[in-house]
Amino acid sequence: MFVSTAFARQVCRVATVDLRKTVFLAGRCFSNVQSDGLAKKVFDDPDTWKQYRDSRPSLPFGFHNYTSGSVGMFMNPYLKRPSGLLEFCKESLLRARQLTVSIIADDSAAGLRQYIKNLDRLSDILCRVIDLCEFVRVAHPNKAFVNAATECHKEMFRFMNELNTSEEMYLKLERVLTDPELRKDLTLEELSVGKLLYADFQKAGLGLAGEGKSTYVELSQHIAETGQQFSDDVYEVEENEVLIPKSLVNKGDLGPGLESYLHVTNKGVLVPLFGHVPMEILRTCPNREIRRRIWTAMHTAKPVQVKRLSHLIIYRRLLAAQFQYNSFGEYQLSDKMAKSPENVRRFLEKLSVEVKPEVEAELRVLGKAVNLEENLIKEIRPWDREFLSALYLSRQKSSTTEDISAYFSLGTVVQGLSDLFKSIYGIELRPAKVQPGEIWESTVRKFEAVSEEEGVVGIIYMDLFYRSNKTLNPAHFTICCSRKIYPEEMDVNDEFNLKLQTVQTTQHGNDTFQLPVISLVCNFQAERVEGGETKCLLSLSQVETLFHEMGHAMHSMLGRTNLQNVSGTRCPTDFVELPSILMEFFARDERVLLSFARHHKTGEPLPLALLRHHQADHSFLDKCETFSQIKMAFLDQELHGKIDFDIDPVACYQQVEHHFEVFEDDVSSWVAKFGHLYSYGAMYYSYLFDRVIATRIWEHLFSKDPYSRVNGDKFKNLVLSWGGSRDPWELVADVLEQPELRKGDVAAMEQLSRVASIDATSSSS
Hints:
Distance between the termini: 23 Å
CATH class of the domain at 410-596: Alpha Beta
Radius of gyration: 26 Å
Largest sheet: 5 strands, mixed
Number of helices: 31
Strand content: 5-15%
Oligomer: single chain
Helix content: 40-55%
Number of strands: 15
CATH topology of the domain at 410-596: Collagenase (Catalytic Domain)
CATH superfamily of the domain at 410-596: Collagenase (Catalytic Domain)
CATH architecture of the domain at 410-596: 3-Layer(aba) Sandwich
């Protein structure tokens, strides 16, 4: 309830504003927003960055919080050193325990009416620590901080289990929700959160009798531990290199310039399975058997990984059986948009039928590269994909070889995002001065999201440059979400709350809200360019990634609600990716890209012909990518299907591959490298589902004018601003002006899935 479900969901006023005019010139659509270019300069111009960064001498990675006069990481005064994180956790747990005792003891009518609000306050205290620790564990370069965060995380989850199985809290919530006299004084948002928490209590075993509760806790612990181990090792392979027998290797098979990376033995050639070498061989090697062996080795997991996955699935099936569900998928989806595994399967099957002809067309193009005309689907295998793609694209190259990334410096792209948001939402990204100890690494930039109407609506820390210790990227973290702070919380004698509220609150009318604090994490490489400068230049794929993550950030900031349980991205898993996937449509629109893309050295605008040439390469095999996601989503449903404890995940995977045929893999154990099976168990379809909805919204609101302020306000006010406080089906129905979708039934799923063409991309955070 308190984190693992309600709070860790992926895991955010209608105003009259003049329509911003746009200029259509040679097929391009440009916003007339005037900007001072500071968002660009703070990344691309070292002199500008000096004005905003901490001016003291550079410190080693991870030691920026230790400095004299430190304000603490994220301006949290507790976070000046690892011991401070432990103290923050200890103080938060103390407050949480005190509040727990208080709200259980208060049986007055007033206390009962405040019960849901107080549960939400309790949740917020815990989430501020948990969300922070999740960020520190994957992004902080200082091992001492990482260790402290891991310890705090464990402490918090111990307390979570106490709350999740508290009979007193569960029964009291049930009383509040079923008493007509109490219900009539609750707001719709409070009722929504109350129902959400009640469902989470039940999922946590409170509806179970006897040993059921303890069994639930034990199974949950097994799932968490096994799932974390599974996630940690998804990039591991059975062997670090693969032997290619001498008899298979002809001169030139293993690529020019790779000799120094290969080890020749009496038996053959040892090829490493990491780095650029295996991918280069897959791309260039004409020997199909060599490609098959390398690809298979790269996609074969360690046996212990397969065993972990089997255990994870069995534990989940046992958990579902505890609640008399027919499958873990049924257990997971009952409160999601899709509602049932049957609806998901129908959606996936319909989508696969619609996409299949376009997949076959793409395969015909690939087949022509080697004059293959018949049995395309069965003949082309996954180890052929890179080779045939490279062969086809090499024959399609135009006379230009110019690298398009020269037009997309990191600063240029961030400025383009700022200008876009200013046009459609009236919100600008403004660089802010970094205070001593506020950041965890010297290259992190701080931005304020500034609204024309409301001032600062959120803080974004952009940790975008490569660092070897980042264990998860790209990613979006909500360090502190938006929620209303009530007068009774603002005790002037409470030093703990006052410390946090001085830097994390904002006023809206007469109300005080927590100011959302966001961190975006990527691993973009800066490199030396002509003239000796260091610049970070992005590919089209990386531009999409940054747009995608910024979509999550805007949802977190604009989803301002009174209660934190439904703030920003705290919404159903199969709805949370919608705003970020919608941003990918902007990132692919040539009018948007041409409005800001400039050569980092000359300032010349990006030529339309060059953009279209690279976009054609970038979107090559998009429908095959979509079909691959359909296969993975279907596999996810199969593994989390009927209650059967004789499970062989590799056999299940290969059966699904055989059923769908396209790029069929019948040799590897890749399923044990499919990390989303833990984080998105039974819900991997969410990416495809949200892409379908995003396609509809793009066509309805932005396809004619991606800079429309009127339609930007519609999306902001009808979708983003609600966070998770309303039924997503109602939000989708309202923004698409299709009231029949509000039911969210089988017919609504069918109607949404009637999409002739959707594109899958690599962004999936």
